[in-house]
Amino acid sequence: MRKIDLKNKTVFVTGSAGFIGSNLVLELLRTQSPVSIVGLDNMNDYYDVSIKEWRLSEIEKCAAEHHDAAYQFYMGDLADQDLLNRIFTEHRPEIVVNLAAQAGVRYSITNPDAYIQSNLVGFYHILEACRHSYDNGERGVEHLVYASSSSVYGSNQKVPYSTDDKADNPVSLYAATKKSNELLAHAYSKLYDLPSTGLRFFTVYGPAGRPDMAYFGFTDKLLKGEKIQIFNYGNCKRDFTYIDDIVEGVIRVMQGAPERRNGEDGLPVPPYAIYNIGNNQPENLLDFVTILQEELIRAKVLPADYDFEAHKELVPMQPGDVPVTYADTTALERDFGFKPNTGLRDGLRKFAEWYKDFYLHD
Ligand SMILES: NC(=O)c1ccc[n+]([C@@H]2O[C@H](COP(=O)([O-])OP(=O)(O)OC[C@H]3O[C@@H](n4cnc5c(N)ncnc54)[C@H](O)[C@@H]3O)[C@@H](O)[C@H]2O)c1
Questions:
Q1: Could you tell me if the CB of 100 is within 6 A of ligand 1?
Q2: C-beta separation of 70 from 36 below 8 A
Q3: Ligand 1 atom nearest to 41, measured from its CA
Q4: How far apart are the two ends of the chain, measured CA to CA in Å?
Q5: Tens-digit pLDDT profile for residues 64-93
Q6: Ligand 1 atom 11: the closest Cα is on which residue?
Q7: DSSP string covering 281-304, please?
Q8: Cα–Cα distance measured from residue 110 to residue 256, given in angstroms and rounded to the nearest whole number
């Protein structure tokens, strides 16, 4: 693995107004300055844009506090190849972190176009820009890190999910685009010696997270007095990964690029890697919502006498759902000495406190 010192480097982060992207930019500013960060986001309204604006304002504040850091934001689309080329020509990023994507599994049933444009056409534009960064003998991009997803495991039964397992039976268009990203990256790594690392994230949660995700939706519903549905009577286990753990993992991975080397045939072996980033500790869904509910009461999002039992409905499994999913993180630990470790209560406490401040301040 080739070590990369992020100090004095230019890092291009796509999806920088998104949940993971914004937290990554904040942590880079805090811990890696002097660093130069270029952000891109199209600020689409897939979910409440005011959360994206709030995240950008947090970044602006943080950048202003770090005088030795440079930060520039572009509002634009990955599908706009001219814009990407302009950004690469002007800033010459050494590290590219592609987090912009159309996320969500259910939305892909009604809005397939968004997935093709952002996740396939957009990702192809990133790969092309990385490839041409080497034109004219330039040093170019030293490491492309991009978001994949645990959804590539489809309905695999074997747990924990390992990057050595077969993952070519996606069960949603979203998953199919993420798996395609890994395949495209492999081809570009091989053809152009582009060091690339794909990260399969497992359900990420935390403050200013995504309103389309279950824990956020549960909170909205409980607050409105509506019932939440808990599938498989709460007996399904998932890996919930706290945002700070994800960010720490991404920053560590950014600093270790797969080595460029030639194989026995004298041709480049693709400098290519894939890792899981998950908690490696599956939690029962019912325990998760119980802790969430307790923390919502503690943060005064819900009243102390909230009748939780009356607002939860235990329902059977949905077709296609898998009872247990969690990440095998052995490779991440081996190569980067890191494994997520934030407990559910700590993480949900921070989410509940943020929710209170953001939505319910006087
Ligand atoms: N949060 C999770 O649990 C999770 C799990 C697995 C994988 N992922 C992946 O991690 C990445 C980040 O996820 P997130 O949770 O921060 O999602 P997010 O939706 O909060 O962030 C993505 C950002 O990208 C922007 N974007 C989307 N399409 C774009 C385009 N064509 N051009 C420019 N910007 C665009 C959106 O406006 C958004 O701000 C995504 O690739 C997602 O698929 C997330």
A1: yes
A2: yes
A3: 34
A4: 51
A5: 999 999 999 999 999 999 999 999 999 999
A6: 99
A7: S-EEHHHHHHHHHHHHHHTTSS-T
A8: 38
To which residue do tokens 């979203």 refer?
174
Q: What is the pLDDT of residues 240-278, one digit of tens each?
A: 999 999 999 999 999 999 999 999 999 889 999 999 999
CA-nearest residue for atom 42, ligand 1, is 103
CA angle 218/223/227 to nearest 5° reads 55
Asked if residue 210 has its Cβ within 6 Å of ligand 1, the reply is: yes
Domains of the chain: 2-202+243-279+326-341 (3.40.50.720)
| Stated pTM of the model | 0.97
Annotated catalytic residue within 71, 153, 174, 188? 174
The answer to whether 188 touches 133, Cβ cutoff 8 Å, is: no
Q: Establish whether residue 122 lines the binding site of ligand 1, counting it when its CB lies within 6 angstroms of any ligand atom.
A: yes
Polymer length of the chain: 362
Establish whether residue 99 lines the binding site of ligand 1, counting it when its CB lies within 6 angstroms of any ligand atom: yes
DSSP class of 279: -
Indicate if 275 belongs to the active site: no
